[in-house]
Amino acid sequence: MKPAAAHLDGKFVLAGVAGLSALAILGLLAMIIWMSLRTGVPGQPSAYTFNNYTVLLTDPYSLRVLKTTLLFAAVTIGISIPLGFIFAWLVERTDLPHKALAMSLLGIGILFPTFLKAMGWVFLLHPRIGVINVLLMPLFGLTAAPLNIATVAGIGFVEGLTLAPLAYVMISAALRGMNPALVEASSIHGVSRWRTLVRVELPLVYPALVSAVIWMFTVALAAFDVPGVIGMANNIFTFSTALYFMINPNEGLPRYGLSGAYGAIMVAFSLLLMLPYFAALRQSHRYQIISGKSYRARVIELGRWRTAGWALIAAYFFVAFVLPLLAIFWVSLLPFVQMPSRRALAAASFERYGAALFDTALLGAGWNTLLLMVAVPTIVVAASTAISWVVTRSRLRARIVLDAIAFLPHPVPHLLFALAIAYVALLVSDVVPLYGSIYVLMAVYAICWISFGTRVLNNSMIQVHRELEEAAEVGGVPTLTILRKVIAPLIRPGLVYAWIWTSLSAYRELTMAVFLASPRSQVLSTYIWGQWHGGGLGDAAAIAIVMMAVVSPLVAFFWIYARRQQQVASPV
Amino acid sequence: MNCSRITAAALLALALAGASPSGAAESIDHLVAGAAKEGEIVFVAGSETFGGRKGFAELGAAFNKKFGLNARINFAPGPEMNAMAARVITEVKSGRASTDFYLGSQSHYALLHQENALENVPWSASFPWITKDMEVLPGESVLVYTSLNGIIYNSNLIPKDKTPKSYADLIDPRLSPAWAGKMAIPPYVQWLADLSLLWGQEKVKDFARKLVTLSGGRLRYSEEERVVSGEFPIMANIGGALEHMWMWQNKGAPLVAVTGSSPPITSYFQLGALKKSAHPNLAKLFVAFMMSKEAQLIIEKYDGRTTHLVEGTRLAKYLAANRIKLQPPGEAMAAYVKSEGGEGLKFKEELAKMLKQ
After folding, report:
1. What is the secondary structure of A3-46 as a DSSP string?
2. What whole-number distance in Å separates Cα of residue B77 and Cα of residue A362?
3. pLDDT interval class at B341 (50, 70, 90)
4. What is the pLDDT along chain A (572 residues), one digit of tens a residue?
5. Which of A22, A47, A320, B117 is the most exposed, having the fewest neighbouring CB atoms within 10 Å of its CB?
6. Nearest to residue A108, comparing CAs of A405, A318, A291, A355?
7. With left for phi above 0 and alpha for psi between -120 and 50, is residue B280 left, alpha or beta?
8. Is A339 in a helix, a strand, or coil?
9. B103 DSSP β-pair partners
10. Which one, of A323, A321, A326, A329, lies nearest residue A350 by Cα?
11. How many Cβ atoms from other residues are within 10 Å of residue A459's Cβ?
12. Do A253 and B86 touch (CB under 8 A)?
């Protein structure tokens, strides 16, 4: 039998890792507040002041940014939630054929970077260079482009379209867990399908809808990719892009203090939004199946509407994924952006792809991306395991607080964590040369995605009965060994799922990376962003295509694995 | 804030008037020996700078050949000049610059000088091919290319009878309907401040107000491909307008440039080694190399831009052929600094507010 100290040591290690993670989260949030009370650049002496808040609140530009952000978020929600609901309803509540294929088509969209799709939409729906507009105008004898992506509504449309699969995932989980007895009762009493949907099913998934709406709102609040790619050149600024220009100004020095004030207000706003979010989640159990019986609701027969259901899903996949990809591919072949024509086709070549193969900076960015795709999920899974163990297994009073802290990066826009860690790295750069290194990106990704890791692993660990480890404890097995040999094998699907999802997130992340990447720590997403932002549209398009091709096998593997595990890719 | 900027501007003007490099001249051999140990150099700038990856591959090879080195030249696409200047200053103050040398024009270099971010190098004393007039900020920066500002437009999208011949045409009600709501304007104020030296401040303010009303977006100076593509049919001003036209017309693109004023607004783009650089010897050697005739020819080949001070470059020939005389770079720098003080600063702040709308 091992001494009691061994048990204690293991528990201390887990509690220590969990505590350090929580400290890192709180520390970065505190840094944002601290930044907001200072002026000048990091490392320079500064008196404490509320001047940044005064400047922010009295500048008409801030009001304009606020209005734009709210409108952008409203359109994003208006597109993503209805689409997500329809897809979820078709997959979960109807007899739509080939559901696995439908789920895969919707899922693939989540896993490919949003900013690449946004690039494609510029070439599709811009009023002057959008292929669709150029085709529609002569077709209907129009003198002006009928559609315009270069507006707040257009940007919201693209964001909403890319977030629809995420809304689908969130709502479908609720539809699956919905109490079918009420729907059955409605059907028995002769209520029409439509009335049942509106009067029974919609109220039943109401909490899931509310939480999905709030989640989409926080995503829109922080989204950099679509507003950055489409909005910036068209003088449309949301919170995230306005913040970007405070740190990377067109003229003068970076305004860290002002960006801190922006950040502090965003943090407060995001945390306020969490109140209705949690209220909705608390209500959700009232609508779930509580019967122990294997009781499944009868699915709705679509009849001739089956084709229409599939047409909608196929059209979504084509419009949201295939079309932007084709547009990027076309641009990548040309010496400069041109409409499809014989002349343009004659000028097309794979020259940019050949050049990309010998681009050492691009290879370096690829290597850094790979490093993040391995290291970040490993750190996230390790830290989340420790936190989830403390939350679900220990009797510590602080475990509820720890869980709440681990959840904090979920509502708070991730770019604020990036901003805070950049500030810290600059402050300590004389002592520790962290600024601009890949480790800064690694740290901030890990901190931000702990919230996701702990949600997955909390759920997994709760399902493992304590008696197994209690038996091992009685046998004198140390805590870490119990975790490794008893709990880990039982929660393996959750661990692998969290690892792969985080790995793919590291691959597609742009918002945080764009604030932190330096020449030493370029990743593929920032490399493409640099090309796009620097005016190299064709090069950006070619590298984007290469990036998608390289990562496709991993995406396919992830999707097959997730399907096999019967776990749906929900971030909450 | 204003007071400190005015003081700094005055100090810079004084420095420009009577400055002589304080750093001692280092021999090229000494620099080469130091550079050999450093092994690599990092340069962060806009993705298409000096021809981007292709240009840098050739520049790197020629540089290594000239000095008998085997250094790796790491060109990393990064933020454009303004954002990069802000970043460099923050980094130098905090301990380590992420780029070894910097590319920027008068406004950026004035800021870098003011923030003491530039390494002192007696360029013309150390490198025989660098003349004194190439040193824009004596002992700090050298002129790598001269850039004539102007309007660019897509000739497929602007009707021939509506093409602008000058900046004033941009707001002419007879012509402007052709680009109203579709014109890109740069998010910078410096070209407008330069224009005020010809037009006066009030006229420029009126011009800027009308320009903002007619604009449909903001493009930075590296984004001319968005005019080539037709996303914006016209851009009110861009640095290196002629060079952009030459480069894109070579690819068959419908881009036309017009210098919007006479004399043309000119930007003097400079290179300088940074303090807290990780590779100081290579930085100095590479900056000096960029002023050589062989480097200028490579830059001309890939980027279309050159300094008019190196004999035989396209711009030198163009200026001679068109009998255009430019203000000496050092004088232009001093004029810029003057515009940074007092009324000039207030004027720029007013313009910045207008452009933010």
Report:
1. -HHHHHHHHHHHHHHHHHHHHHHHHHHHHHHHHHT--SSTTS--
2. 10
3. low
4. 445 555 557 788 889 999 999 999 999 999 999 989 988 777 677 788 999 999 889 988 899 999 999 999 999 999 999 999 999 989 888 888 888 888 888 877 776 788 888 999 999 999 989 999 989 998 998 888 899 999 999 999 999 999 998 888 888 877 776 667 777 777 777 777 778 777 777 777 777 788 788 888 888 888 888 999 999 889 899 998 998 888 888 777 788 889 899 889 888 888 887 777 777 666 655 554 444 444 555 677 888 888 999 999 999 999 999 999 999 999 999 988 888 888 899 999 998 888 877 777 788 898 999 999 999 999 999 999 999 999 888 888 888 889 889 988 887 888 889 989 988 888 877 677 788 889 999 999 999 999 889 988 887 888 777 787 788 888 888 888 888 888 888 888 888 888 988 998 898 888 899 888 877 788 999 988 888 877 788 888 998 898 888 877 877 777 777 666 654 444 33
5. A47
6. A318
7. alpha
8. coil
9. B271
10. A329
11. 15
12. yes
Going across the sheet that includes B135-137, the strands are B101-104, B266-273, B141-148, B135-137
Torsion from C-alpha of A407, A413, A415, A421, nearest 10 degrees:
-40
Residue of B nearest to A334 (CA): B251
How close, in Å, is residue A534 to chain B by CA atoms?
5
* Measured distance CA(A166)–CA(A180) in Å, rounded: 24
Strand partners, B272: B102
Nearest CB to A251 within list B94, B95, B188? B188
- Asked if B140 and B36 touch (Cβ cutoff 8 Å), the reply is no
Q: Is A539 on the interface with B (CB under 8 A)?
A: yes
Q: Residue B147 phi/psi, 5° resolution?
A: -130, 120
Burial class (CB in 10 A: 0-12, 13-18, 19+), A3: exposed
Q: Which of residues 372-431 of A touch B (CB under 8 A)?
A: 426-427, 429-430
Best residue of B2, B53, B351 to probe chain A, by most A CBs closer than 10 Å: B53
Partner-chain residue, chosen from B82, B157, B225, that has the shortest CB–CB distance to A336: B225
A134 shares contact with chain B (CB less than 8 Å): no
- How many other CB atoms sit within 10 Å of the CB of residue A22? 22
CA atoms of A33 and A420, how far apart (whole Å): 9
Residues of B in contact with A535 (CB under 8 A): 46-48, 220, 222-226
Distance set, CA A556 to CA A165, A369, B89 (Å): 16, 18, 44
User: Phi and psi of A461, rounded to 5°?
Assistant: -70, -35
Interface ipTM above 0.90: no
Decide if B256 contacts B165 (C-beta within 8 A). Answer: no
Both tokens of B94, joined, read 């905090």
Contacts of A248 in chain B (CB under 8 A): 79, 83, 86-87
- Can you give the pLDDT at residue A231? 92
Residue A150 sits at the chain B interface (C-beta within 8 Å):
yes
Distance from CA of A410 to the nearest CA of B (A): 29
CA-based nearest distance B352→chain A, Å: 9
For residue A404, count other CB atoms closer than 10 A to its CB: 13
Average pLDDT, chain B: 87
Residues in chain B, overall count: 357
Q: Which residues contact A288 (CB under 8 A, 6 or more apart)?
A: A177, A178, A179
Both tokens of A376, joined, read 């970040």
Parallel, antiparallel, or unpaired for β B255-258 and B72-77?
unpaired
Coil, strand or helix at A472 = helix
How many angstroms separate the CA of residue B321 from the nearest CA in chain A?
31
Q: For the stretch B21-59, what's the b/e string if a residue is b when 16 or more beta carbons lie within 10 angstroms of its beta carbon?
A: beeeebebeebbebbeebeebbbbbbbbbbbbbebbbbb
